[in-house]
Amino acid sequence: MIDIRRSALIGLGLLALAACGQPAATADAAGAAAPAAQPAEAAQAPAGAGLRAVFTDNACFARGYDDAHLAAHPRQMLQHFFLAAPGAEWAALNTPEQFHLGLGFSIRDSTDIFIGVAICTPRGEGAACGLEGDGGEFTITPQGARLRLDIARMELEGQEGFSPNLADSDDRVVLLDRSDFTDCLVD
Predict the structure, then answer these.
(1) Which domain holds residue 177?
(2) Residue 42 forms part of a structural domain
(3) CATH code of the domain containing 95
(4) Tens digit of pLDDT per residue, the chain (187 long)?
(5) Number of domains in the chain
(6) Distances 99 to 28, 44, 84, 87, 184 between C-alpha atoms, Å
(7) Quick one: 161 exposed, middle or buried, by C-beta within 10 A (0-12, 13-18, 19+)?
(8) Does residue 57 form part of some domain?
């Protein structure tokens, strides 16, 4: 069993998100050497954009599933999912009308980690998000201390190829808990 939350989750995830932090045409998974500092503007929420205020320095929301859970849910593909501020390059593009989030996941029967950047538009207390590079669409809604993602379509690139569309499996709704920042890193 691979326990992604405990397996030295350092390096590639933020390296990849930092690489995603560059404009899409120049993104390169070998790009950055260290996690980028999160800018202060990510913590400044304009009226109607309460979700943006959640993603401050080192904010991380994640969820991991153990073998017993996956055995009880055979149509579920997700093993681990995380959502965090994407790094300084993308955060510099934030406006009152939109903000950016980094995300990544692993799925059963694959060693690949799939990552991307979402461009989100505030909608009440939540947001509607589209994935950079036509990777799909999802919404984020606060649910108490959790975040609820409703996935319409999500297909992201990993180092070995593209993920299947999570909306075609039992992964259309993902509940994320505030987590230690290391849960938003992958190796």
Answers:
(1) 4-22+51-184
(2) no
(3) 2.40.128
(4) 333 332 223 233 333 343 333 333 323 333 322 233 333 333 333 333 467 777 766 789 999 999 999 999 999 999 999 999 888 888 888 888 999 999 999 999 999 999 999 999 999 889 999 999 999 999 999 998 899 999 999 999 999 999 999 999 999 999 999 998 888 876 5
(5) 1
(6) 22, 11, 12, 12, 18
(7) exposed
(8) yes
